[in-house]
Write a structure and sequence with these properties.
Blueprint (H helix, E strand, L loop, with lengths): L4 H12 L3 H17 L10 E5 L14 E6 L4 H4 L4 E5 L13 E7 L7 H14 E12 L1 H4 L15 H10 L3 E6 L15 H9 L1 H7 L2 E7 L1
Parallel strand pairs: 1-2, 1-4, 2-3, 4-5
Antiparallel strand pairs: 5-7, 6-7
Helix pairs in contact: 2-7
Length: 222
């Protein structure tokens, strides 16, 4: 999140550390999401970067040759696995990461937390660090389907919509290779089933996404 470090820490601790079971559930959910769905976009020989990694739920589960994570929250460093290279960094200035050194970039529920100007600078930084034909994977709330609940989070700054994000990326000369307007439910506390078997069933039957999906998933190539 592109806010002051102290605010980021407070928000993370309040939102994600409420009960031990909630943390376990989030890790279990992301393990299934990665292994069943996201991993197919990430070759095991690749270098993958997660922007705004939070507590490492995604990056810890990914199989890749090299794993990098950035976040403004210093607590993230203690949450990511030992095989993850962590940088306390803004998404708009990833100076610690060399140009043309990353194959895949992933970000989840992040762009709605920063200004439109910061979004543009972030995707430009993503282009800088990606190799030729590198891919950007974006998961986020789709305003078309979450209008009534989008503003329940204090740190949301501007609404995100799959069509607007795709348009912005195309203006910035990215090529959209996949756009799923309805993928996951809005939050981990919403209707996504809370057992491993049911989560896998949900992921394997896209028909269910049409009823419960309120987040988009976009893949773009630079």
């Amino acid at each position: 999140m592109q806010t002051e470090t102290s605010n980021v820490k407070d928000i993370y601790q309040r939102r994600f550390n409420q009960t031990p079971n909630e943390g376990v559930m989030r890790m279990m959910m992301w393990k299934i999401l990665v292994h069943t769905f996201f991993q197919k976009f990430i070759p095991s020989t690749s270098t993958v970067l997660e922007v705004a990694c939070g507590y490492g739920e995604f990056i810890n589960q990914v199989h890749a040759h090299r794993k990098i994570a950035i976040d403004l929250n210093p607590d993230s460093k203690s949450k990511v696995s030992r095989d993850v290279e962590f940088h306390e960094s803004s998404s708009t200035d990833m100076g610690a990461i060399p140009s043309s050194s990353v194959d895949i970039i992933f970000m989840s529920n992040f762009l709605e937390h920063i200004t439109k100007e910061a979004v543009i600078q972030t995707v430009r930084e993503c282009r800088r660090v990606l190799k030729k034909d590198g891919k950007l994977l974006i998961l986020g709330p789709n305003m078309r389907y979450v209008a009534n609940d989008f503003w329940i989070f204090w740190d949301h700054i501007h609404p995100t919509d799959d069509r607007a994000i795709c348009e912005m990326l195309e203006i910035e000369n990215w090529t959209i290779t996949l756009n799923i307007p309805r993928f996951l439910p809005y939050t981990t506390k919403s209707l996504l089933p809370n057992s491993p078997a049911l989560i896998e069933i949900y992921l394997r039957f896209p028909l269910l996404w049409r009823f419960f999906g309120k987040q988009f998933f976009i893949v773009a190539k630079c």
